[in-house]
Fold:
Amino acid sequence: MDFSKCKMIDGALGTEISRRGFSVDGEVLWSAKAILEKPELLKQIHYDYYLAGADIVVSATYQFTFETMKKIGFEKDKSIELFHKGIDLVAEAREDYLKSLNYEIENIPLVGASIGSYAAFLADGSEYTGFFNKTKQELIDFHLERLELCCENPNTDIIALETMPSFLEAEALIEIFNSGKISKKAYISFACKNKEQINDGTLFADCVKICLECDNFLAIGINCTKPEFVPNLVDIANEVMKKQKKQKIIMCYPNLGNIWDSEKQTFLPDSGFSENDFVSLLHNLFINKKCSIVGGCCSTTPEIIKKLAELVKK
Ligand SMILES: [Zn+2]
Structure:
């Protein structure tokens, strides 16, 4: 299906893997650990999100980096193979889903290849502060290799640049895409710490503004942000686009608002929004045309995505 027709993105992956009994909390690879050790479980979760109504399901490669793989003893070739496997598992889940429908479906949902922030590689929750001592060039070097692999993989429909906490990193990613080295399209989504700033303190409005200058970005989003901040952030995105006279798709997939426990490297359950409040918040943003793709991040589940999809696709 065409990306512009998408309405729903999937829900959490890392927290969902842990919820199903394979804890990846505090692991250096986080959800990517399941590519190595629990591929069947991972494929099942991807499948469940397609079944729930997601038009875009995203791979477990968010925290997969070659630096980490080397540290835990993997040769480069094997690491590259496993990175591709993370994307391929989503495509396999989609194939199973299509088969279950006897291929009787008008719009075939998409496979997203997830790329996390440099902060995700640090595996210490730096996504939530956005502070890491790197130059723009270092961030370019860090991101380029995985982005090239996403492009090489024929299963990648869209590249998901997610939970970006840093303005400098957004600039680095824009520079990569504007250099023409990356042929596939992407969306970029920011993690915000309040109603107007991304996690490093930059105004979200400034981030939207620079991302409008990247033709390869099909959408600009907000993810892994507390749901109560999201309505205002979506308004900001709309205002900037109006002012700049440039329109891109706005995506919104906040987390459930659970409190982050930095010691345990996990979200404390039941400390955020109720499922119903979460679903109605996003449904409202969607029906009021404030954003056109909705879904969930950490602590959301296929059940929540199903409830939201039923409303959005009515
Ligand atoms: Zn998240």
